Amino acid sequence: MTRWTWVDEEQLLEQLDLVRLSLPEAFHEADALVRQKDELFLQAEQYAQEIVENAERQAAQILNEMGILRQAEIEAQQIRQQAQQECEAAEAQTIAEIERMRRQAQQELEEMQRLAIAECEEIQAGADEYADRVLQEMERQLSEMMRVVRNGRQQLQPEAPPRAREANTSHTATRSPGAKSDRAKN
Predict the structure, then answer these.
(1) Domain that holds residue 69
(2) Long-range contacts for 136-143 (Cβ within 8 Å, ≥24 apart)?
(3) Which residues 6+ apart lie within 8 Å of 132 measured at CB?
(4) Nearest 5 degrees, angle CA 83-CA 87-CA 91?
(5) Is 15 contained in some domain?
(6) Which one in 55, 116, 134, 165 has a CA-CA gap of 20 to 30 Å to 172?
(7) Is the pTM of this model over 0.70?
(8) pLDDT digits (tens, 9 = 90+) for 47-71
């Protein structure tokens, strides 16, 4: 009932030799396991590092793509605004050009009207002048004819005292040509 146990010495020594002989191999196996564990740990760290680096690259790429997308959206908005401004400027320029052309056409129309009126007035003045010349020539011819008629009538009348002739001449001159022809018929 003591704590002492009796052991077979020979068997114990054999067991110790066995342990002693197997210990270096166990140490080698344990050492190999530790090295394998360290290699696995190192590989795991490298793999984890690669995963982290890949994730960081992908995150950077995604952020870059998002930045590119944002930049593209900003540029598209700027292009839309610029196109809108150019359209508005072109519209204003076109309206101004149309207004300028309308004013120019109005001025040309007014000038054409003025020239047409001036030409009409010139034609009218020419026509009036021509009519005046024709009437003046007719008047001259009629005066000549009246003189010839008076002379003919005087030659046809018997000799009368000069005073009666003058009265007759002045009386005949104040009458209309139709009155003379009535008198000639009588």
Answers:
(1) 20-152
(2) 142/177
(3) none
(4) 170
(5) no
(6) 134
(7) no
(8) 888 999 998 888 888 878 888 888 8
